[in-house]
């Protein structure tokens, strides 16, 4: 495994004792061996200039779908990816075909994309290889199940579901139908995240005993009266849409806790955490601020994940404080804000009199589209898994999504947040208003 010293020989990411101007790195320097083909057939496919094409059906047309689809439309070569590519073949809106058409126009999508005014039509399209579920998390269980029951592989936005029983049901169906299924926690697939995990695994900062992670946004009103800028009907604070800081923002803080303290443990030694949580409620009943302690007794490690809608991780909005601190016996890694889309980390070794190694990991852009958000890496993972016949990703396996969902469910229970029965049920209903668009 690479060490900080070895990074200097890679040419990228750039490394210096102080912050430097970001440069676009050759991503091969970041990619672990598991991301590269190891069979002659796949190597020939890449050498012949015939990348594997994954055909996407897009379920919903909100802002997260817009960012994801614009990433799908970028040239993979801009991120030094040559073995897979993506094609948007269909887009659906639960409200109207016109809305789907407006969405395709907004993202400068292909004129060939088929437009649907219902999710049922999308999942019935034989040209769709995989469905991207981009609806609110209140709808994820019913929407993802609709696609799985239709025989489609699924990439479902985070948080995967509203509770653990729903997540388990989705995994059961994906396994029974032999389909690929993954939670869209895009941060996991960043070259930066991969590199941080590699450094931890190599022992660069010794045994990791604690991770502190936060994702918070200061949405407080100027009146400073304890209210936020969102209307009460907004998905961020609306309990009917599983609103609240935890499921929308806190999952990113938990992502860093789990990928540093849980994911890297040997499979036989993995243990779900003991969870202690506290929440402050907004006037809608959703959580406005949440703190979670995850204790892993067998490893003597602890993660502290926090999230809030009233204060920000970095008060000046300019990385004045690290979003994540990964603390080991020989030093620590500090990851820049925001936790969901960091572009820099620092390695601070014990006893080095303040010397700091800084690694910049900028997100490449397609110059023709002037776009690059970072969601394309999770899409590339989907393409490689489907190409290779894998049903789940090693980077975010089903079991880990379930354990994280169990952790969030425990926090919600301890914090006294209860969502409506319609969105917490684990009974699939193709005619549910969550599938038909009447809710």
Automatic annotation (TrEMBL):
GO-annotated molecular function: D-xylose 1-dehydrogenase (NADP+) activity; nucleotide binding
Organism domain of life: Eukaryota
UniProt entry keywords in alphabetical sequence: Oxidoreductase
Boundaries of every GFO/IDH/MocA-like oxidoreductase domain copy: 195-333
Keyword set includes Oxidoreductase: yes
Annotated SUPFAM superfamilies: Glyceraldehyde-3-phosphate dehydrogenase-like, C-terminal domain (SSF55347), NAD(P)-binding Rossmann-fold domains (SSF51735)
Catalytic activity: D-xylose + NADP(+) = D-xylono-1,5-lactone + NADPH + H(+)
EC numbers for this chain: 1.1.1.179
Domain Gfo/Idh/MocA-like oxidoreductase N-terminal span(s) in chain numbering: 55-182
Protein family membership: Belongs to the Gfo/Idh/MocA family.
UniProt name for this protein: D-xylose 1-dehydrogenase (NADP(+), D-xylono-1,5-lactone-forming)
């Amino acid at each position: 495994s690479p060490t900080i010293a070895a990074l200097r020989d890679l040419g990228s990411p750039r490394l210096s004792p102080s912050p430097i101007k970001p440069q676009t790195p050759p991503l091969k320097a970041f990619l672990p061996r598991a991301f590269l083909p190891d069979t002659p057939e796949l190597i020939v496919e890449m050498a012949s200039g015939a990348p594997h094409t994954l055909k996407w059906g897009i379920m919903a047309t909100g802002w997260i779908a817009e960012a994801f689809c614009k990433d799908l439309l970028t040239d993979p070569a801009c991120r030094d990816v040559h073995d897979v590519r993506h094609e948007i073949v269909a887009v659906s809106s639960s409200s109207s075909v016109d809305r789907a058409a407006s969405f395709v126009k907004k993202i400068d999508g292909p004129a060939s994309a088929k437009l649907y005014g219902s999710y049922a039509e999308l999942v019935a399209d034989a040209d769709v290889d995989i469905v991207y579920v981009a609806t609110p998390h209140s709808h994820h269980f019913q929407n993802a199940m609709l696609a799985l029951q239709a025989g489609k592989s699924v990439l479902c936005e985070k948080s995967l579901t509203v509770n653990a029983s729903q997540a388990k049901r989705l995994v059961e169906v994906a396994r029974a139908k032999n389909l690929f299924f993954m939670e869209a926690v895009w941060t996991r697939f960043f070259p930066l995240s991969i590199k941080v995990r590699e450094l931890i695994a190599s022992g660069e900062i010794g045994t990791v005993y604690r991770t502190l992670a936060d994702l918070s946004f200061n949405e407080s009103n100027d009146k400073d009266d304890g209210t936020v800028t969102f209307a009460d009907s907004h998905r961020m604070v609306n309990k009917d849409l599983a609103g609240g800081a935890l499921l929308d923002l806190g999952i990113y803080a938990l992502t860093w806790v789990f990928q540093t303290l849980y994911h890297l443990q040997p499979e036989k030694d993995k243990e779900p955490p003991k969870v202690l949580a506290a929440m402050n409620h907004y006037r809608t009943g959703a959580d406005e601020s949440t703190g979670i302690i995850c204790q892993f007794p067998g490893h003597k490690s602890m993660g502290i994940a926090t999230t809030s809608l009233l204060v920000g991780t970095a008060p000046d909005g300019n990385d004045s404080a690290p979003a994540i601190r990964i603390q080991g016996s020989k030093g620590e890694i500090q990851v820049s804000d925001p936790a969901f889309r960091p572009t820099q980390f620092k390695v601070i070794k014990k006893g080095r009199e303040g010397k700091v190694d800084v690694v910049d990991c900028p997100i490449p852009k397609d110059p023709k589209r002037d776009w690059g958000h970072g969601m394309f890496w999770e899409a590339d993972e989907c393409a490689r898994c489907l190409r290779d016949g894998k049903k789940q990703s090693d980077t975010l396996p089903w079991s880990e999504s379930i354990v994280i969902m169990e952790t969030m469910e425990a926090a919600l229970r301890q914090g006294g947040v209860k969502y409506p029965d319609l969105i917490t049920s684990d009974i699939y209903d193709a005619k549910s208003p969550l599938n038909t668009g009447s809710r």
